[in-house]
Amino acid sequence: MDKQSMNDKIEYIVMFISEFSKKHHLTGRQAYCYLKEFGTVEILDEFYDVMHTQSFENMVMNITAFCHRKGGVLQ
After folding, report:
1. Contact, 34 vs 26, CB < 8 A?
2. Residue 75 pLDDT more than 90?
3. Distances (CA, A) of 1 to 6, 15, 31, 34, 66
4. Is the pLDDT of residue 1 over 80?
5. Least C-beta-crowded within 10 Å: which of 32, 52, 66, 73?
6. pLDDT tens track for 9-50
7. What are the residue ranges of helices labelled H in the chain?
8. How far is it, in rounded angstroms, from Cα 1 to Cα 37?
């Protein structure tokens, strides 16, 4: 992966965590820890090529549902 692609991926993941934290009224750190607990940071990294083509609103909703199915309490 070239440097620009890596930077794009990192920027997407940071923005996703920010949008997730806003939606669920969490700090950025709380959102990151919650997402990390359910393995979703790794999913964001692995499936970036598909996920970045979707809206943040859609992806936040989908990842929230994923975490909930794995025992997360946020809805």
Report:
1. yes
2. no
3. 6, 20, 27, 27, 27
4. no
5. 73
6. 999 999 999 999 999 999 999 999 999 999 999 999 999 999
7. 3-23, 28-37, 40-46, 48-51, 56-69
8. 26
The DSSP secondary-structure symbol of 61 reads: H
The pTM assigned to this predicted structure is: 0.92
Give just the sign of the alpha carbon dihedral 47, 75, 38, 13: positive
Q: How far apart are CA 73 and CA 9, in angstroms?
A: 27
36-39, Cβ contacts within 8 angstroms, sequence gap of 24 or more: 37/72, 38/66, 38/67, 38/70, 38/71, 38/72, 39/70
Distance of CA 57 to the CA centre of its chain: 11
27 sits in the region (left: phi over 0; alpha: psi -120 to 50; else beta) called: beta
